[in-house]
Write a structure and sequence with these properties.
The complex is a heterodimer of chains A (226) and B (545). Chain A has six helices and ten strands; from the N terminus they run βββαβββαααβαβαββ. In chain A, 31% of the residues lie in helices and 27% in strands. Chain A has a ten-stranded mixed beta sheet with strand order 5-4-1-2-10-9-3-8-7-6, sandwiched between helices. Chain A is α/β, with parallel strands linked by helices and 226 residues long. Chain A has two domains: 143 residues, Rossmann fold (3-Layer(aba) Sandwich), CATH 3.40.50.300; 54 residues, no CATH class. Chain B has 545 residues and is mainly alpha-helical. Chain B has one domain: MetI-like fold. Helices cover 74% and strands 1% of the residues of chain B. Chain B contains 26 helices and two strands. Chain B is globular. Classes of the chains: A alpha/beta (226), B mainly alpha (545). At the A-B interface, helix 1, strand 4, strand 6 and helix 2 of A face helix 22 and helix 23 of B.
């Protein structure tokens, strides 16, 4: 098994009238898009992988480490939320440092690790500002850097481009690709947008509804266009 | 294969959860149900005697008192709204966010001990008061119903302004801008855009002010100048503590008092609870700690208005005679015992109230959705029960342990804490019922422990509410009068509470000394009110590690 391969094995999540089933792997460097209509369970699956929702059965591994046995804070899986979930009470700098700070890393070390990213993504000089002062694109970058500097085993993205205009989407996509080029990790990503799919996905997983029992199975479609 | 992954949702199945779930009915029964039933039982018992409770209820003297209670409370609400609503709306138009200091200043009078309020009022409208000397306060209004209504109205105006301001801030800006863009005038804006949004807030605030004024005790006693200015609250006191005990008369007053203070509250509660629950505003949501950029937004007139509402009525507290009379008080052997007792009452009753609210919130959160409204109603119920009514009920229900003639500080603390529960619950429930789950998840995904999650996500939301409400309670609790009056044996061997010192000085016509004690009481209250801020600072400095 690859050291950082994200393995979702025989996962089943029962949610009232329907249930989700998934069984697939995402290799490091692979960017897998989760496709399907609204409410089909894409975000639920992502949240299950991150540990925010319980699995009815099945396991999630990162390499040899069983993530599903760990609480969310110990899984070391980066999650970028659709609404970004920046902490409004913290400044830009404190948001960026948060993941490192909670790991007990010293201030000097935090700043050292963040410096190249802050520079690269044009956030230098904005550290002391409230996050409310940032534009949509800048907020996206803060959310991404905040997650990325913690060195996640895998990256989970819940419709990260939705709130952005087309220009910003391209900018954010480029930022993501730049980040991933340095350290290829498995990426699992929820989207509705076919343009994004063409530009970003290396492969895709779609939902297949089977039987009358409301079972929604995530099935790999094969390689994407990229 | 069962997943072992923990979730953020509370586990409602454990024994601890069952204990929490059962807390609100037990609490409601013990501190409200049993005392109120005790009163009803006594009412039925007196029916067999020569003067039953029905005779008391139909007694023209008591009915006149009830009528006056209603009138003075309604008059006070009207005055508070006349000043507070336009001020709150005007301030709301002038600022995009409410700076923390504005909240603090406008909230300051809520914590004002009654005796301090009276002392401040006398500076303006006493026999030698500033307004009386200027001929702006007619002699005929000295120590009258007018004095009571004006003091109640002015005292509560800043609270009405604050609630209006907070609710106004919560109206989505785009809605206001859309109406403005369509050419709506200020009055049209008020009628069509703001009224639907603010109506419930005004109803609730109006009810709260009405209840406070109807249940007011020492202000009526001192500023009313004695009979015929008597409210149900002072009538209960005089029937229990002055002259001969008149149980049927006291019970008649209690039942009428409950009808006046609890009746409208219950009606409003059941009518609006669901929407209120969904819309509840907490100060923490709109407060932004003082940014310099807020100042120009408000402008000098805005700053002056805030100070006029929150601080101007109280400037008389720091007058020269009061400062002079402080000297002998500071050297008095009674000083430290008095401070210790008053501060102890305030601290313990606030802590006990906070504990009850914590347990109640936990309990309500664990109820099934359809039972929550009822559970919330129970938690809010004491807001319509006065100190003397509850004290009398506790006396009747727990006769074996409750001696109202024995300086019983433990019961004073219990009484104060129960009556503080609705105030705290209303401030904390909106925060507790809508945790920032998404932000909590984000923090956990970044590796934060539970404490670190709380510190980064929940603490910034809770901090203003904790500082504001606990500070207000501590300050108000320092000068509590009604519970101490009911439960006073007159010995106070462990130390005479500061408010009793003030009352004693007033009853001996030593007004300068009374002002000195008031100043001291206020000083202790302010120091205690700052405690939550100091503790918050400690948590802040603790950081997220």
């Amino acid at each position: 098994m690859n050291e950082r391969e994200l393995v979702i094995s025989s996962v089943r999540m029962e949610r009232g009238a329907f249930c989700i089933e998934a069984d697939f792997k995402v290799t490091p460097g692979e960017r897998v898009a989760l496709l399907g209509r609204s409410g089909c369970g894409k975000t639920t699956l992502l949240r299950g992988v991150a540990g925010f929702e319980a699995l009815t059965q099945g396991r999630v591994h990162s390499g040899d480490l069983e993530l599903s046995a760990l609480p969310p804070e110990r899984r070391e899986v980066g999650f970028v939320f659709q609404d970004l979930a920046l902490f409004p009470a913290l400044s830009v700098g404190d948001n960026l440092e948060f993941g490192l700070r909670v790991r007990g890393i010293s201030k000097a070390e935090r700043l050292k690790r963040l410096a190249p990213w802050v520079e690269r993504f044009g956030l230098r000089g904005r550290e002391s500002e409230p996050v409310g002062n940032l534009s949509g694109g800048e907020r996206q970058r803060v959310a991404l850097i905040r997650t990325w500097v913690t060195g996640p085993r895998a990256l989970l993205l819940d419709e990260p481009f939705t709130a952005l205009d087309p220009g910003m989407r391209a900018e954010f996509r480029a930022a993501l690709l730049e980040v991933l080029a340095d350290n290829p990790v498995p990426v699992l990503w929820v989207t509705h947008d076919h343009g994004e799919l063409e530009a970003f996905a290396t492969s895709r997983i779609a939902v297949e509804e089977t039987g009358g029992g409301g079972v929604r199975r995530f099935v790999r479609e094969g390689s994407g266009s990229k | 294969m069962e997943s072992r992954a923990p979730t953020l949702s509370p586990d409602g199945g454990t024994l601890t959860a069952a204990l929490f779930r059962g807390f609100y009915p037990v609490w409601g029964t013990l501190v409200l149900g049993v005392p109120l039933l005790g009163i009803l039982r006594e009412a039925f018992r007196t029916q067999g005697t020569s003067r039953g409770v029905l005779d008391a209820l139909l007694d023209p003297a008591i009915l006149t008192v009830a009528g006056f209670t209603l009138l003075q409370a309604l008059g006070s609400v009207a005055l508070a709204f006349l000043i507070g609503v336009p001020s709150g709306l005007w301030l709301g138009r002038r600022m995009a966010v409410v700076p923390g200091w504005v909240i603090s200043v406008l909230q300051f009078p809520m914590g004002m001990p009654s005796l301090a309020a009276i002392s401040a009022a006398l500076f303006w409208i006493g026999r030698n008061g500033a307004l009386t000397q200027l001929g702006l306060w007619p002699e005929a209004w000295l120590y009258s119903a007018w004095a009571v209504v004006v003091v109640h109205g002015v005292w509560n105006a800043s609270w009405v302004a604050l609630r209006t301001l907070v609710a106004r801030q919560a109206v989505p800006r785009e809605r206001v801008e859309a109406a403005r863009g369509l050419g709506a005038s200020h009055s049209q804006m008020l009628g069509h855009v703001l009224w639907p949004e603010l109506r419930n807030e005004w109803l609730w605030t109006g009810l709260q002010v009405f209840q406070l004024c109807a249940m007011s005790f020492v202000v009526v006693q001192v500023l009313g100048g004695g009979p015929p200015v008597e409210t149900l609250e002072t009538a209960i006191y005089s029937r229990l503590r002055l002259a001969e005990l008149d149980f049927p008369g006291a019970i008649g007053c209690v039942l009428l008092q409950l009808a006046v203070t609890l009746g409208p509250g219950l009606l409003l509660l059941f009518k609006t609870l669901r929407e209120e629950d969904a819309r509840a505003q907490s100060l923490g949501r709109v407060v932004r700690s003082g940014r310099r950029s807020d100042m120009p937004e408000m402008g000098l007139p805005g700053v002056l208005l805030v100070f006029a509402l929150g601080l101007l009525p109280w400037v008389g507290l720091v007058r020269w005679e009061a400062l002079q009379s402080l000297g002998p008080i500071l050297q008095s052997p009674e000083l430290w015992p008095s401070i210790r007792v008053s501060a102890g009452i305030a601290l313990l009753s606030t802590l006990l109230a906070a504990l009850q609210v914590f347990l109640l919130i936990r309990s309500v959160l664990l109820q099934k959705e359809r039972e929550r409204s009822f559970a919330i109603s129970v938690a809010l119920l004491p807001s319509g029960v006065s100190t003397l009514v509850l004290g009398f009920g506790l006396w009747l229900a727990f006769e074996f342990a409750f001696d109202p003639f024995a300086d019983n500080l433990a019961w004073v603390i219990v009484l104060q804490s129960v009556l503080a529960v609705p105030f705290l619950f209303r401030a904390f429930w909106p925060l507790a019922s809508r945790p920032e789950l998404r932000l909590q998840e984000a923090a956990r995904a970044l590796g934060a422990s539970r404490y670190q999650v709380f510190r980064a996500v929940e603490w910034p939301r809770w901090k203003p509410a904790i500082q504001g409400t606990l500070g207000t309670l501590l300050m108000a609790g320092t000068g509590e009068v009604a519970a101490l009056s009911l439960l006073s044996g007159g010995d106070w061997t462990g130390g005479v509470p500061l408010s009793v010192q003030v009352s004693r000085a007033l009853s001996q016509y030593q007004f300068a000394q009374a002002q000195g004690w008031v100043l001291l009481l206020l000083g202790v209250g302010v120091v205690l009110a700052l405690l939550p801020r100091v503790l918050a600072g400690v948590v802040d400095r603790g950081g997220g590690r």
